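Researcher: Let's do a round of design. I'm pasting the structure tokens now; please hold your answer until I've finished.
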């Protein structure tokens, strides 16, 4: 019956793998070490009691932004505003530069098309608003004249003003000449005539053509200026010489008065010096204008074409031609009826 009491499902040899000697020794050592540590013993509490932070020691004040942070924010705002102002100034400069370039391109395009730029209201000579005589010409160097020609054009204008002042001083010198010797009354009369005649004619005949030539790069205006200004230089030379009875206080007339009246001779010599300066400046500016003209690429054939186109498109010329044609047709019709 002992065989029936045995468990048939039990291995004949009951072996526990965890009862190995090496495993048993390792587990027993670990459990001993773990049992030795007790964090709640008195010695451990005394050791770590100095490192605890009491609740009352914590600050109950709310968090405050440091001053350095506020200053940095203000500095960033100030720098941002300075950048905006600098960018605005740069944009204004660029806008002014674009406007200037647009004006130059408009002048160049109108010049290349052979048209005169649209001028504003007449502003020369500058007269008060209450004056019954109104300005006759429009003049604006900044708007009309390209930058490369602006300087020489202004110099021509200054030459014309110096020319007008010299003619006025010539009237005073010839008046002194006449008071010193009644025989030279004709010089005083002619000096008045030259001042009244040459001042406006010089403005219209050689200054305005050169202004128009530089404004619209007009070949015909250049040729007209050269033709008239050449005679103006010759007149300056004659006035500088000072032939008696010609209405000019030049060197000959002033030197002849030294023996008769020295103060009058000195006044006349000053005017003769002004005439000399006029002649020298006229020759220099003529050469300068000619050098500018050669750079524009203008030619005589182009001047002829511009003159023909200007004559054909001129309203006054068209009206006169139509009137002449109508009169000729009426005359021919009348003769045919009479015969």
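Researcher: That's everything. Go ahead.
Model: Designed sequence:
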């Amino acid at each position: 019956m002992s065989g029936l009491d045995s468990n048939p499902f039990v291995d004949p040899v009951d072996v526990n793998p965890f009862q190995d000697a090496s495993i048993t020794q390792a587990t027993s050592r670990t459990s001993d070490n773990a049992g030795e540590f007790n964090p709640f013993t008195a010695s451990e509490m005394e050791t770590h009691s100095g490192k605890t932070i009491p609740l009352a020691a914590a600050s109950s004040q709310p968090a405050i932004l440091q001053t350095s942070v506020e200053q940095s924010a203000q500095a960033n705002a100030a720098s941002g505003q300075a950048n905006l102002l600098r960018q605005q100034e740069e944009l204004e400069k660029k806008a002014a530069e674009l406007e200037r370039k647009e004006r130059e391109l408009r002048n160049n395009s109108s010049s290349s098309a052979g048209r005169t730029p649209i001028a504003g209201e007449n502003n020369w000579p500058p007269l008060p608003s209450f004056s019954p005589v109104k300005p006759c010409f429009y003049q604006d160097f900044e708007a009309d004249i390209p930058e490369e020609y602006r300087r020489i054009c202004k110099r021509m204008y200054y030459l014309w003003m110096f020319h007008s002042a010299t003619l006025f001083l010539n009237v005073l010198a010839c008046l002194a000449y006449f008071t010193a010797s009644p025989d030279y009354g004709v010089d005083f009369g002619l000096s008045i005539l030259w001042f009244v005649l040459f001042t406006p004619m010089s403005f219209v005949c050689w200054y305005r053509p050169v202004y128009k030539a530089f404004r619209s790069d007009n070949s015909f205006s250049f040729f007209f200026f050269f033709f008239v200004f050449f005679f103006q230089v010759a007149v300056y030379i004659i006035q500088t010489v000072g032939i008696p009875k010609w209405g000019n206080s030049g060197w000959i007339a002033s030197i002849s008065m030294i023996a008769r009246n020295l103060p009058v001779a000195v006044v006349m010599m000053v005017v003769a010096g002004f005439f000399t300066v006029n002649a020298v400046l006229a020759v220099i500016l003529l050469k300068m204008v000619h050098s500018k003209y050669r750079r524009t690429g203008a030619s005589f054939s182009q001047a002829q074409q511009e003159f023909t186109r200007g004559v054909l498109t001129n309203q006054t010329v068209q009206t006169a031609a139509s009137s002449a044609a109508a009169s000729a047709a009426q005359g021919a019709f009348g003769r045919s009826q009479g015969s």
